[in-house]
Amino acid sequence: MSEEAARKFKYWQIRTIIGTMVGYAAFYFVRKNLSIAIPAILDDPGLGFSKAELGLILTLMGVCYGISRFVNGMVGDRVISKYFMAGGLILSAICNIIFGLSSSLIVFTIVWIFNGWFQGTGFPPCVRLLTHWVPPKQLATKMSIWNTSHSIGAGLVLVVCGYIISSGLGWRWCFYIPSAVALAGAAFILISLRDTPKSVGLEELNIEQKKKEDKNDDFKKILRKRVFANPYIWIIGIANFFVYVLRYAILDWGPTLLGEWKGISINKAGWMVALFELAGVFGMLTAGRVTDKFFGGRGPRVCVFCMLLATMFMALFWVLDSPPIWLATLILACAGFFIYGPQALVGIAAANIATQEAAASAAGLTGLFGYASTIFSGWGLGYIAEHMGWSFAFASLMAFGIVGALVFMMSWKAKANGYDEDKTLEKA
C-alpha cells in the first residue's frame, strides 16, 4: 500500500470507528430507556403493572433481540451495512414513539418485541465494518475503543431519562426524546459510513485469504467451517450468557433495585448506573489493550480474570449493609469496570476467530446466547425480587459470575484468530 493510500485508509478507518460508535450509541437510546422508566411506570396508578410483568417484557425483548442478532448477523455479512443499520435504528425509534403513546400491557409487550428485532440490526453491521477496516492484530484494541459506544449510549440515556422523570415531564418523554436522538443517529450513519475499503477505491485487508475463500467456498461453507463447526465460537457464546446476566441485572434493574433495596432516589440511581457504564468504558479499553499487549490477542483468557473480579465486587456490594452512597457507587463502578471487559472481548474474539468473511454471523451467534440471558436477568430477577426481595435476587448473581469464569476457561487454548488456519479448514 502506498503512503497516500495508507493515509486515505487511516482516515476511513477512523471515520468508520467514529461513525459506528455514534450510530450504535444511538441504538441504546431507544433500548435502555425502558430501564430508567420502569420505576415511574410501576408508580403510575393508571397502569398497575407488576415487576414480573415488566420483567417479562424485558425478557421477551432480549430473547427476540438475541434471535435477531443471530439471523441478522448472517444477513449482515451479505448486505450494505450502513443502510441495514440505519433502517433498523429508524424502525426502533418508531417503536419507541408507539410505546410512549400506549397504556396497554399487550401493546407494550408487542411493540417492545418488535423493537428487540430491529435492535438486532445494529451490532452485526458494526462488526462487519470493523473487520474490513481494522487488521486482526489491532482488532482487540480498536474494537474495544468502539465498544465504549455501549456504555456511552446506555450511560447517557440513563442520565437524560433520569432528569426527564425527576423534572416532572413523565415517563412517556423517556421514549419521545430518545426517539429523536435515534433518528438523528440514523442520518449520521448514512452520511459517515462506507461499506468496505473497495467501495472507496482502496485494497481490502487480508486480500489473499479473501481471494482463496471466494474461489473455494460459498457462504454456507464458510459459515459451517468458521462458525457452526468451531467449538470455541460455541464456548465463548455460552460464556456470554453469564456475562450478560451480570451486566443486564444492573443495567435493566439498577434504578429499581437501588431505589427499593438501598433507598436511593431515582436521579441518584440513574447516575450510579451511568457511572457503572462509564467505568465499563475504561474496563473495555483496558481489557482490549491487555489482550493485545500481554495475551497475544487471546481475549477469552482475559475474560476469565475479568469475570472473577466482577463477581468479587458484586459480592462486596451485596455484603455491605447500607454503605455510604460514595462507597456503593465506587463498588458498583468497579464491578462495571470488570464486567465490560468480557462484554467487549466476546465479540472481538468471535470476529477474529471467524475472520471477516463470517464476523457478523459469529457475533450474531454469541449475541444469541448473550440475550438469552434476559430469561433470568429480566423476568427471572423481577420475579425473585417480587417474591423474595432484592437481597436474595442480587445474591443469585454471584453463582452466574463464577460459572461464567469456568466456561471461559474452556476456551483458554483458542488461537487469537482464524486467518492462519486455511490449511486446517480445507481438511475439515
Tally of individual helices: 18
CATH superfamily: MFS general substrate transporter like domains
What is the residue-mean pLDDT, rounded to a whole number? 86
Helix content: over 70%
For the record, the count of structural domains works out to: 1
The value of Rg in angstroms is 21 Å
CATH topology: Growth Hormone, Chain: A
Molecular structure report:
The structure is a single chain. The protein has helices spanning 3-29, 33-43, 51-76, 81-101, 105-119, 123-133, 139-166, 173-192, 207-216, 219-228, 231-262, 266-294, 299-319, 325-354, 359-372, 374-388, 390-409, 422-426. With 428 residues, it is mainly alpha-helical. It has one domain (15-197, 218-423): Up-down Bundle (Growth Hormone, Chain: A). The model is unreliable at 211-216 and 423-428 (pLDDT under 50).
Short overview:
This protein is mostly helical. It has helices spanning 3-29, 33-43, 51-76, 81-101, 105-119, 123-133, 139-166, 173-192, 207-216, 219-228, 231-262, 266-294, 299-319, 325-354, 359-372, 374-388, 390-409, 422-426.
Topology:
Elements: H1 3-29, H2 33-43, H3 51-76, H4 81-101, H5 105-119, H6 123-133, H7 139-166, H8 173-192, H9 207-216, H10 219-228, H11 231-262, H12 266-294, H13 299-319, H14 325-354, H15 359-372, H16 374-388, H17 390-409, H18 422-426
Helix pairs in contact: 1-6, 1-7, 1-8, 2-7, 2-11, 3-5, 3-6, 3-15, 3-16, 4-5, 4-6, 4-8, 6-15, 7-12, 7-14, 11-12, 11-14, 11-15, 11-16, 11-17, 12-13, 12-14, 13-14, 13-17, 14-15, 16-17
